[in-house]
Amino acid sequence: MKFIIKKERLIKSIQDALKAVAVRTTIPILVGIKFDADENGVTVTGSDSDITIQSFIPKEDDDEELVEIVEPGSIVLQARFFSEVIKKLPESIVEISVEDQFRTIIRSGNAEYIILGLDAEEYPRLPVIEDGDRFSIPNDLLKLIIKQTVFAVSTSETRPILTGVHWIIEDQHLTAVATDSHRLALKKAKLQSETGDGKTYSLVIPGKSLNELLKVLDDSNEPVEIIITNNQILFKAKNFLFFSRLLEGKYPDTSKLIPTDSKTTVKLNAKEYLEAVDRASLLAREAKNNVIKFSTMADGAIEISSYSPEIGKVVENVKSLSTEGEEIKISFNAKYMIDALRAIDGTEVSIYFTGTMRPFIIRTEHDSSILQLLLPVRTF
Amino acid sequence: MKFIIKKERLIKSIQDALKAVAVRTTIPILVGIKFDADENGVTVTGSDSDITIQSFIPKEDDDEELVEIVEPGSIVLQARFFSEVIKKLPESIVEISVEDQFRTIIRSGNAEYIILGLDAEEYPRLPVIEDGDRFSIPNDLLKLIIKQTVFAVSTSETRPILTGVHWIIEDQHLTAVATDSHRLALKKAKLQSETGDGKTYSLVIPGKSLNELLKVLDDSNEPVEIIITNNQILFKAKNFLFFSRLLEGKYPDTSKLIPTDSKTTVKLNAKEYLEAVDRASLLAREAKNNVIKFSTMADGAIEISSYSPEIGKVVENVKSLSTEGEEIKISFNAKYMIDALRAIDGTEVSIYFTGTMRPFIIRTEHDSSILQLLLPVRTF
Predict the structure, then answer these.
(1) Fewest Cβ atoms nearer than 10 Å: which of A200, A212, A350, B138?
(2) Which residues form the DNA polymerase III beta sliding clamp N-terminal domain (chains A, B) (predicted)?
(3) What does the DSSP 8-state code read for residue A124?
(4) How far B188 CA sits from the closest chain A CA (Å)?
(5) B302 to chain A: which residues are within 8 Å by CB?
(6) Contact check, Cβ <8 Å, B85/A115
(7) Fold designation for B2-122
(8) What CA–CA distance (Å, rounded) separates A68 from A40?
(9) Cα(A22)–Cα(A48) distance, rounded to whole angstroms?
(10) Distance between CA A153 and CA A173 in Å, rounded?
(11) Residue A5: pLDDT above 70?
(12) For chain A, domain boundaries
């Protein structure tokens, strides 16, 4: 194998592939990144066996020559070390060639590295995804769907299925739901393309995979093609392929959790309310329980407070835009409220309560596609 | 105690004082910051008992009112929590008042915190530094002196005296020396003011103190007054006092370590050489020994190389500006060379060797005040 390549483009592809490379792995070759050079260009692959990211460098892009393939072939190189070497090379052009025994020579300007590579034949095969159901979502919308839900997945392995986000595809709509059983995030989106034959799909994508996918997606509205098979999902964008395994098992039916009526509705300026919760959360966090109290006041305002016998207390009044229905005093986890408000990202938010011990929902007027639900905390 | 203060100025002072506050401490009250309000303004003090930083907020600065003292007094507040609370307050003005039982009320806009403070009487007294020998150094020069030496102190407690930087003050000159017995950094500077009576001072300042001092010094050329007593040093700048204990014991005589002759002199472009060493260090670091090899070549160039049987090797040629004297092949710690070159920060550097097993020195033509010395590593 031998190719001569633009350094900056190689760095970009290595950085994308690196996001899938685990720091510790039980499969030694997965500390490496695989390079495949053929007549079309160079493919850079990183994997931790759950996630695989493949970045492709074509010979030319917009009439600019990116890579000259002198001799096709494959090699696996230690990912992090190789990445640092490439970043520090003196010239903008790098020559990479493989000799006997997987010895790989990297030349740039007056610098020459010989590093010991590994046999690409021993690198795990990619999942084969030929025929699968496919649809597409623009980069920016896909990012938004992930950001507005993935934070609510469970981080505990006691119910592994809850560490993923549940995607339901039905009638050209995607519904994404995540819950850790203390809070729930839900986002709906319309799909651009047909999903074929009116079938319904239900899949659970690991939260960790979606968090890594976020890092490689760009902010364009170019479509990302999504292909689903039994146990894998593939995201196919212009310059990369992103494979993730799916979680096995049945995701709980969350639709019954979401209250449809409300006894108290409070509408607030989102920024003022978030800042007040954030300040109260400082004390709540210091008190270790992270719990703050929300009370409607006689004058229509609300009071946010937190108390700890060791540290002290905080009380804050926030004007409401409107308050309807019964009085309420309710306690909840401050961090979950902050996460929910950040996900909604509106100028105003409305909170719908159905009682001190019942889950409540947070929405915004100008975007009906997103819903956040929190369970209250019992305080005695 | 009660005062009303500009939030931004309070934050600045807390951040300075926080640099002295240890995360873990055996003296519980030192997790706090002490506030003293009197007719002149507010003094904010943080300490870990080795270092004490005191930041003063005057009532007025440049005709701008900074703080209104309603009632003088003192309180100690939990440092990190209080700092975060202040940073998140809604308004630019903060009212702080202390009630019974050290309950401290913080008000800003609609937010009100009550936090439990500690008795300021229990906070350790500052070292009394009234009469001491004093001289002064501008902020920017003091920063430079520290930066060019402190990195070379020992991090091991086997010889505690080497964890400090040795300052010798003599004939209106300061000489600062640091060594961890593998390398040495030396910087000389002329002092602005008289040091009194032609006395010679010799003191050892903990490296940790100097690193913290670096963070509070600004880049102005305003003088910092330095006052020395038996076991303390005080740095007195416009807005803060910085106290540090001195290390006890005799610092070794390092002057004999520095060779005065040279058998080989190589002059190099500093940037090219640093980059080559930096690249070679990647492999040396991966190989765990951090050792690189420096060889003069027949054509006057030098070769930088590193080799590891497990990882591979790197070879790089660097043109020299001049090479005089005997050929040399020598090995040294790459990180120490990088530290030395960064400290010198010149456009060219000259390296003076006196043999493969002898310490060698690195200097730059345009700044004779700095000298770096490295011990070679034996490679077999």
Answers:
(1) A200
(2) 1-127
(3) P
(4) 34
(5) none
(6) no
(7) DNA Polymerase III; Chain A, domain 2 (3.10.150)
(8) 10
(9) 5
(10) 21
(11) yes
(12) 2-122, 134-254, 258-374
Measured between beta carbons, the chain A residues lying within 8 angstroms of B312 are: 103-104, 113-116
Residue B277 has pLDDT above 80, yes or no: yes
Whether the Cβ atoms of residue B278 and residue A88 lie closer than 8 Å to each other: yes
A134-254: CATH, from 2.40.40.20, 3.30.190.20, 3.10.150.10, 3.30.70.20: 3.10.150.10
Q: Kindly tell me if the per-residue pLDDT of A134 is higher than 80.
A: yes
Mean of the pLDDT values across residues A319-345?
Answer: 95
User: For domain B133-255, which CATH number applies: 3.10.150.10, 3.40.50.970, 3.40.50.1110, 3.40.390.10?
Assistant: 3.10.150.10
What's the token pair of residue B59? 């009532």
Of B279, B312, B313, the CB nearest to A88: B279
Identical fold for domains A2-122 and A258-374, yes or no, is no
Neighboring chain B residues of A316 at a CB cutoff of 8 Å: 110-112
| pLDDT, tens digit, 9 for 90 and up, residues B324-345 | 999 999 999 999 999 999 999 8
The CATH code belonging to domain A258-374 is: 3.70.10.10
Nearest neighbour of A282 by CB, restricted to B81, B313, B317: B81
Q: Predicted ipTM?
A: 0.83
Chain A residues whose beta carbon lies within 8 Å of the beta carbon of residue B88: 275, 278-279, 282
| B273: chain A residues, CB-CB within 8 Å | none
Which B positions 150-179 lie with beta carbon below 8 A of chain A? Answer: none
Between CA A243 and CA A253 the distance in angstroms is 26
Contact call for B312 and A113, based on CB within 8 A: yes
Note whether B116 contacts A311, CB cutoff 8 Å.
yes
CA distance to partner chain B, nearest, from residue A133 (Å):
44
Strand partners of residue B122: none
Q: With b meaning 16 or more CB within 10 Å and e meaning fewer, what string describes B317-330?
A: bbebeebeeeebeb
Asked if A115 reaches chain B (Cβ–Cβ under 8 Å), the answer is yes
Model confidence pLDDT, tens digit, residues B289-329: 899 999 999 888 999 999 988 889 999 999 999 999 999 99
Residue B315, chain A, CB below 8 Å: the answer is yes
Cα separation, B374 vs B380, in Å, equals 19
- Enclosing H/E stretch for B57: strand B51-58
Examine the pLDDT at A195 and tell me if it is beyond 80: no
Distance CA B183, CA B360 (A): 9
CA A182 to chain CA centroid, Å, is 20
Across the interface, whether the CB atoms of A311 and B78 are under 8 A apart is answered yes
Shortest distance between the Cα of B272 and any Cα of chain A, in A, equals 9
